[in-house]
Design brief:
Helix content is about 25%, strand content about 30%. The strands form seven sheets. A five-stranded parallel β-sheet has the order 3-2-1-7-19. The protein has a five-stranded parallel β-sheet with strand order 9-16-10-11-12, with helices on one face. It has three domains: about 5-110 and about 240-310, FAD/NAD(P)-binding domain; about 125-240, 3-Layer(bba) Sandwich (FAD/NAD(P)-binding domain), CATH 3.50.50.60; about 330-410, FAD/NAD-linked reductase, C-terminal dimerisation domain (Enolase-like, domain 1). A hairpin with a 4-residue loop joins strand 14 (about 220-225) and strand 15. The chain has helices at about 10-25, 55-60, 65-70, 130-145, 155-165, 185-200, 245-250, 295-310, 375-385, 390-395, 400-410, and strands at about 5-10, 30-35, 75, 80-85, 90-95, 100, 105, 110, 125, 145-150, 170-175, 200-205, 210-215, 220-225, 230, 235, 240-245, 260, 270-275, 280-285, 290, 320-325, 330-335, 340-350, 355-360, 365-370. Flavin-adenine dinucleotide binds near residues 8, 35, 43 and 296.
């Protein structure tokens, strides 16, 4: 038996690679190495059900501990990989131990960006990525009264909704002119601003945070460049992530906006693959190279990476999708709206149920659905299969998307882009 596959990272992507390799009949050793001390777990609940006590650690484990023994997956936890030696095909752990590999998968994810301002180190200024951070946030939320969320992206807004539902006074400070602006159309941003405001959250866009001030080492307020100040006994910084590319770069692998991979998810070294939040891949649905941060992307790239390792050459072409839960509103996104040139809506924001259809060069590129799960599911089918949809059909509620998906399958013009 050879050295088998070593996977670095015990997040969604790392876990799924190991699981998929076994599902696909891979018999060689599999070693899953992660710097966190826990068996792989779901991150999405950390800003949702975990914070309100609906979910505990056991319920967010990706698989129970015995799964790894039963599937001969060796877990090496609480160990950071410090270096990759491509010449001898070994990784070196922080402890100095070395582990050989035949195939190596970099599923090293991303880390939260740090706010480069005075006061960011004060007690009570938190960020959220890991279980440890979620536990601290949960404890501190219970006793906090005034919460300032810096960053109006998905995670910041999910935490804002949780805190608001717990009866806290919440302010969201977003640097850009609108919420979630990297991902959604203005109409969706507006809807979310109104939603949060209607619940009592103060939302301030175009806000440049200049300093976090405190006393005796503890946070007290957040200051804006214009002079405004917001009292806070807890600050959550959610200003996006940076991919963990250093290990790859030091090993001489190409890094762009992530670890660069081809359609089989291989880096420039065909024996080293990169997947999930850390990787930038060619995406047929974007018509561009992209780095995505979602459970879907991590899990489905892992399945593709496992296939590549098992010797099948199936290019990665899964349709990207994503969701966020804020209050009792679910936003589901399918496809990639990047570069869209037209949008139409189905339903009205006032009804709390509507979808936005994004078109690029006359073709349906993405759908954002608010409390309309059927639109989302049909949207996934329509976009994935490249089924033609007109602007008029998308906007007309009397046009059944299910029928369109069914009928249109015969006229599909896949592959897109
Ligand atoms: C709070 C929160 C809520 C989210 N909600 C949603 C949601 O609603 N919907 C959705 O689709 N997505 C959501 N996401 C995003 C989604 O969870 C991520 O995109 C996905 O988990 C990425 O998985 P990954 O395995 O690529 O990376 P990660 O989960 O970041 O895992 C990478 C792992 O590698 C480890 N690692 C890094 N470097 C090393 C090293 N050198 N040695 C050893 N180990 C290393 C890290 O410690 C980490 O455990 C959420 C994320 C967060 C944080």
């Amino acid at each position: 038996m050879g050295a088998g596959t070593v996977v670095i990272g015990t997040g969604q992507a790392g876990f799924q690679t190991a699981a998929s390799l076994r599902e696909q009949g891979y018999q060689e050793p599999i070693t899953l190495i992660g710097e966190e001390p826990y068996i792989p777990y779901h991150r999405p609940p950390l800003s949702k059900g975990f914070q309100v006590g609906q979910q505990d650690f056991e319920s967010i484990e990706l698989r129970p501990g015995k799964f790894y023994q039963n599937h001969r997956i060796e877990l090496v936890l609480a160990q950071r990989v410090a270096a990759i030696d491509r010449a001898t095909k070994r990784v070196t752990l922080g402890s100095g131990a070395q582990i050989p590999y035949e195939k190596l998968v970099l599923a090293v994810g991303a880390r939260n960006r740090v706010l480069p301002i005075r006061g960011a180190e004060l007690d009570g200024v938190l960020s959220l990525r890991t279980l440890d951070e979620a536990v601290v946030l949960k404890e501190r939320l219970a006793n906090a009264r005034e919460i300032v969320v810096i960053g109006g992206g998905f995670i910041g807004l999910e935490v804002a909704s949780v805190a608001c539902t717990m009866g806290k006074q919440v302010t969201v400070l977003e640097a850009l002119p609108r919420l979630m602006s990297r991902a959604v159309a203005p109409v969706v941003s507006e809807f979310y601003e109104k939603l949060h405001t209607s619940k009592g959250v103060k939302v301030i866009c175009g806000a440049t945070v200049s300093e976090i001030a405190g006393a005796s080492g503890c946070v007290q307020k957040v200051l804006l460049a214009g002079g405004a100040a917001f009292a806070a006994d807890l600050v959550l910084v959610g200003i996006g992530v940076a991919p963990n590319v250093e290990l790859a770069r030091e090993a001489g692998l190409r890094v762009t906006n992530g670890i660069a991979v081809n359609e089989f998810l291989q880096t420039d070294d065909p024996d080293i693959l990169a997947i999930g939040d850390c990787a930038e891949h060619p995406c047929v649905f974007a018509g561009a190279r992209v780095r995505l941060e979602s459970v879907q992307n991590a899990a489905e790239q892992a399945q593709c990476a496992a296939a590549t390792i098992a010797g099948r050459r199936d290019p990665y072409r899964a349709l990207p999708w994503f969701w966020t839960d804020q209050y009792d509103v679910k936003l589901q996104m399918a496809g990639i709206s990047l570069g869209h040139d037209q949008i139409v809506m189905r339903g009205k924001p006032e009804s709390l149920k509507f979808s936005v259809f994004y078109f690029r060069a006359g073709r349906l590129a993405a759908i954002d659905s608010i409390n309309r799960p059927v639109d989302h599911m049909m949207g996934r089918r329509l976009i994935a299969a490249g089924i033609p949809v007109s602007l008029e059909e998308a906007a007309d509620e009397s046009v059944d998307l299910k029928l369109l998906a069914h009928r249109g399958a015969q006229h599909a013009v896949h592959p897109p882009a």
